[in-house]
Amino acid sequence: MKTIAIINMKGGVGKTTLTVNLAHALAEIHGKRILLVDIDPQFNATTYLMNEAEYLAHLQNPDKRTIKDVFIPNEQRMSMVAVRQRVPGTGTVSLAETVYSVPVENGKLDLIPSVLDLMALQFADRGTEHRLSRWLAKATGYDYVLIDCPPTISIFTQAAVLASDTYLVPIKPDPISALGLPLLSRWLRDTSDTFGKDLPCMGIVFCMVKGSVTNQMKQTMAAVRDENPALVFDSTFRDATDVASSARASLPYLKFADQVKRPNHPAVADLKKLVLEFLRRSKNNG
Length: 286
Prior knowledge:
Blueprint: E1 2-6, H1 15-30, E2 33-38, H2 44-49, H3 52-60, H4 67-71, H5 74-83, H6 95-98, E3 100-101, E4 108-112, H7 131-136, E5 144-148, H8 155-163, E6 166-171, H9 175-178, H10 180-195, E7 201-209, H11 215-227, E8 232-238, H12 241-248, H13 253-259, H14 266-284
Parallel strand pairs: 1-5, 1-6, 2-4, 2-5, 6-7, 7-8
Antiparallel strand pairs: 3-4
Helix pairs in contact: 1-14, 12-13
């Protein structure tokens, strides 16, 4: 099992769109067993894969939990259980309690949903950042764990880094988005010094790429490639109306493309190439 943090310090670069569709395509096309962990308090990956009724049903089910519960200390969680008049167990949240299984024809795609009040744990006690790593160490039966991180430096991004084997950086091909790369590298070096964990980079993926690439986009992409020659993916993820519509419909893009009868859209081909390159790089990345 390989755990990968999908991370960028800037929002609006297509991070969640990449994470969700990469996870779904790995399962649907290649039969992989995927666990997608939404660790962003904005919970966009969650609502991409769960419609409103499914999400509310999960939150209202007394037997279900979210990523927030992974970060709550056992004694505090058991106290909450008692308040709600539930029968207390061991106090440890199980994978089965948190998981929402996304329907796929091949492979397996499980989601650990996030919630807005995850932000309440932003200033949790020291050591909280290690809880995700310890918890995921007990997860079995998956080929890949993909962690969708918030676009900020926080306890949650720290937790994702500590839980991961490598990280993937989505970037929009514009000069402002490219500015986030040095910031991310610097923060990861500092995190490595603090926690003694050197996290290798799997690669950099250009997302939200227009069908008609402007000169400015070309210049930005060339500059990033020159500075990171071995890291930038050859494949890109296209900016398309259907991709944005798939998120609003709470359907992975491949499923949405089939539903609207556009399975041969260029963005579908882009995604398939991207997944193949991801698999190659993942294998070479150890």
